[in-house]
Amino acid sequence: MEVVCPIDEKRAPEISALLRPPPPREIQDYFDRLLASRECCRLKVKQDGEHGKGVYADVEFKEGELLLRDQMLFGCQHPLNKIDCLVCSFCFRFIGTLELQIGRRLFFQDLGLSSSHGCDTGACSDVSNDHGASDSSDGDDIMDERSCDDSRGCASGSKRAKVPLPKEIVESLMNGEIVLPYSDKFSAPPVVPCAGGCQEAYYCSKACADADWNSFHSLLCTGEKSEAFSAKALLQFMQHANETNDIFILAAKAIAYTILRYRKSKANFLTSCKEDAARVMDKFHMPLLLEAWKPISVGHKRRWWECIALPEDVDPSDEAGFRMEIKELAFKSLQLLKAAIFDKECEPLFSLDIYGHIIGMFELNNLDLVVASPQEEAKKVSQPYLDALGDEYAVSCEGMHNFYWTDLIYQQTWLCF
Ligand SMILES: [Zn+2]
Ligand SMILES: [Zn+2]
User: Fold this and answer.
1) What pLDDT digit, counting tens, does each position of 86-121 carry?
2) What is the C-alpha separation between 340 and 127, in angstroms, rounded?
3) Ligand 2 centroid to 56 CA: how many Å?
4) Which residue numbers in the chain have pLDDT < 50?
5) Cα of 250 to ligand 1 centre, how many Å?
6) How many angstroms is it from 217 CA to the middle of ligand 2?
7) How far apart are CA 131 and CA 116, in angstroms?
8) What are the residue ranges spanned by the domains of the chain?
9) How high is the ipTM of this complex?
10) Which ligand is nearest to the CA of 222?
C-alpha cells in the first residue's frame, strides 16, 4: 500500500520552498563566507550549472599538507561502536583515562557485548543497516586494514585467544583504582556527562557539551532536562534507529538543528521588533525557517528511496518493492520522531518528503568518521590488559558525518579533531 504522509499535502508550498535550491549567487556567497571563516584556507568552491559544485585551488600543495580543517555539521557514532569507544558526543575525540577505556570494554565483553563481535551479536545480519546510507563504514580508502579487520571482521581464525581478567580487576580499571604504567602519557580529557541527565552523551569539555546542547542535544536528550516533547517517544525513536538504520539519528540531528536555529532567530527577531508578535510572525515565519534551513538547503539531495542503490542481494524484479520498503521504514521512523520533538511552527520539517530528502542527502554525501584509538599507542605498556581484549584492543571510533562538499579533500587528507 502506498505510504501517505498528510503533512506532504498540507504543507506542500512550504515544502517546495525548502527543497528549491537557492539561487547560484546565494550559494556562492554562502560558500565564500564559510571558507573565509576557516583557518588558512586556500581553497575555493565554484559551481557550474552542468556539473554541480567543485573544489578549486590556484596554489600548489605538498603531499600530506593540511588542506582544510572544517567544522563537522552533523555526525554520529555508530551505536555498536559506543560499546567499544568512549568518545565526546560532539567532537568525537576519545575521553577518559586509558584504564577507563580498557576497563569498560572488558566489562561489556564480559556481558557478551562488543561491536567487534558483529557475527555473535547479530549485527552482520541486520538487513536494514546493511542497506544505504548507514553503510558508510565501507570507507575503504580511509580506514586502514587493521581497523576494518578489528571492527567488522567475522573471520576470526587468525586472531589471538583472549586471556580473561578477574571481575575485580576490570572494576578497578573502571573506577581508577588501578593505574597502568605510563598511562598518563596517553591522557585524554576527563569525561563531562550530559547536563540533561541522559547518561548517553558524554563530552571532552563543557564547551563541547554546551555546543551540542545548543545545536541538537537539548531536543534529542532523553534525560530529565530534555526539551523534547516526549522523552519516552524519543527513546522509541532511538531504539527503532538502532535496530534498523542509524542514519535516522543523523536525520533527527538535522531536524533538531533547524528547529533550534529557527527558535533562536525568531527570539532575536522578536526582541528587535516593536510590532505585534503574532501579526509579524505571520509574515516572517517562512523567511526565518528558510534561513534556519540554509546550511541544509545548499546540500545536493534526492529522496532516499529513489536515490539508494539497489543492493546486490535484491533481485532487479523486486526493485519497486524494495524502494517501497525503504520509504515505509523512513515513514515509521519519522512518525516516532514527530511524536518526540514535533514543533507546529516547523511542521514542514516533519513531512516525509523533507525527511526523505535529508536522508537522501546523507546517502549522497556521507563520509566515514574514524578516530584512532589511544590504546594502539599504549599497547606496549599495557600488554596483560590488552591480552584480555584479544586482537580487538584498539577499535577506532566509527561513525558517519556530512560535509556536503569536502569529500575530495578528505579522501586525500583525512582529518580527525
Ligand atoms: Zn569534544
Ligand atoms: Zn543528554
Assistant:
1) 899 999 888 988 778 777 877 777 776 665 544 333
2) 26
3) 40
4) 117-127, 129-157, 403-417
5) 18
6) 6
7) 20
8) 6-412
9) 0.99
10) 2
